[in-house]
Amino acid sequence: MKRLLVLGAGTAGTMVVNTLRPRLDPREWHIQIVDQDAAHHYQPGYLFIPFGTYTPDEVVRPRSRFIPDGVELVTGQIDEVRPDAREVGLADGAVLDYDQLVIATGVTPRPDQTPGMLGPEWRRSIFDFYTLGGAVALRDALAGWQGGRLVVHITELPMKCPVAPLEFAFLADAHLRRRGLRDRVELVFVTPLDGAFTKPIASARLGGMLEKRGIALETDFMVERVELDTRTLVSYDEREIPFDLLVTTPVNMGADFVARSGLGDELNCVPVDRHTLLSTRYDTIFAVGDAADLPTSKAGSTAHFSIELFADNFVRHIRGEDMTEAFDGHANCFVEAGDGKALLLDFNYDTQPLPGKYPLPVVGPFSLLDASTVNHWGKHAFKWAYWNVLLPGRRLPLPARMTMAGKIHEEVAR
Fold it and tell me: What is the mean pLDDT of residues 194-204?
């Protein structure tokens, strides 16, 4: 009996076992999936908790509900991968053997990587919303906040869902207007990028939205430390940004066991071939989702599109055949704009987000780089699709690779 071992039962790992179980003969392949706890979190929902749109109960369900028959769910802390022995050690001393290994343990925010961030002001005046605990704490803080300087901050990229801080700024603007507090709040968006977003056309559009809402934009800001006495962000070039309430996105890093196993880069992400997701060092190891060092957005859509192609490649790989499906970095992201509207971005390794319609030319129904009510409802409908279509490994009626259908070429001056 051959053994497929998947590390991480989050979005990507769960989709892997649901996609591969029907394709691997259960008489030949035993499949195990390992995670440290029993709860599966719908992470895109964290964004809405600070504003009371979602409750914590709406974003958490038992992992076991999404693991198919014929897959063994193991609960345990991963200690180390030993590639030469084809085994994984758990913290309790258990050892799991494998013939093929898939690493899908994602990335997590690490406020400890920035001096002063994880100090006495953490979750008093400094918050994040990329964890359930952080989102709930921020919800409680916003409920009693009466105004001041609100700074929304990105420490560095890559990170999960890179548009989420922009969404938070737009939603905060709308939330504060509804509460009658907007005139008492100075909103500032601080980024290490040279614009509001990574790609020029989207950056220009999103930067214009910040300006229209009176949200100041501070670019090229590489934070060096947080001064707690003065509640100030300080950059490596000694610029200072004071805050009354800081909503930060800490450094995102892969799992520590990846570093202990000698499998990661400086951020503990696994170097892989960007088209096949196969490790650049071991032909028995793949990395999928946020755990891989792919040069594209770390987002659930990226995991979904890539795993559709990964499954075909994996089956060929274990047969000793060439992997012929090439993932192109396809990602699409809804961007909440506040006031019941959202944008949609669709892009890949080589093509930046462009305006137009998606998925069908002319009719859409979703608008690319243009705020619409339909996009907003698409964003919220995604929660249903996540639980009922994506995690169970069902195919969406959308191509895994990006197409130019419906997109309009546009140039932007830089």
Answer: 93
